[in-house]
Amino acid sequence: MLYGKEHIERYRQTNGAEGHDWNGTTTLLLTTVGRRTGREHTTPLIYRPYGDAYLVVASKGGAETPPDWYLNLRQNPEVEVQVKDKVFKARARTATPEEKPDMWRTMTRAWPDYDEYQKKTSREIPVVVLEPVA
Question: Where would you tag: which of 2, 19, 52, 80 has the fewest CB atoms within 10 A of its CB?
Answer without folding.
Answer: 52
